[in-house]
Amino acid sequence: MNWDMIDRNYDLESPVSLQQSLAWIANKLVHSFVFMAMCNEGGGLVSILFNSDHTRKNTSMKLELIN
């Protein structure tokens, strides 16, 4: 995948809220097809964009990190 064109493959402008168990999230991260760290201007990690090999053609998930 071309990381510089990730917005072509996924609709990043129309998020849908999703609540899942930690086990579900861990499974998607372990079997990730896309795994991309999203950082703020200062270089701090703010979220992770990911999906699994099973969901790669349909959607991506974003896990936001909260201080």
Describe this entry's structure for a reader.
The protein is an alpha+beta fold and 67 residues long. The protein has one domain (18-64). The protein is 19% helix and 30% strand. The chain has helices at 6-9, 22-30; strands at residues 32-39, 45-52, 61-64. It has a three-stranded antiparallel sheet. The longest helix is centred in the middle third of the chain and has 9 residues, at 22-30. It is globular, with a radius of gyration of 12 Å.
Write a concise keyword list for the protein shown above:
67 residues, alpha+beta, three-stranded antiparallel β-sheet
**Helicity, in percent?**
10-25%
Question: Strand sequence of the main sheet, in spatial order?
Answer: 1-2-3
Structural class: alpha+beta
First-to-last CA distance: 31 Å
Main sheet characteristics: 3 strands, antiparallel
Q: How many domains, as an integer?
A: 1
Q: DSSP strand (E) fraction?
A: 25-35%
- What is the mean pLDDT? 84
* Alpha carbon gyration radius: 12 Å
User: N-to-C SSE series?
Assistant: HHEEE
- Please report the total strand number as a whole number: 3
Coarse morphology: globular
Unreliably modeled segments:
none
Helices, by number, come to 2
Which secondary structure elements does this structure contain, and how are they paired or packed?
Elements: H1 6-9, H2 22-30, E1 32-39, E2 45-52, E3 61-64
Antiparallel strand pairs: 1-2, 2-3
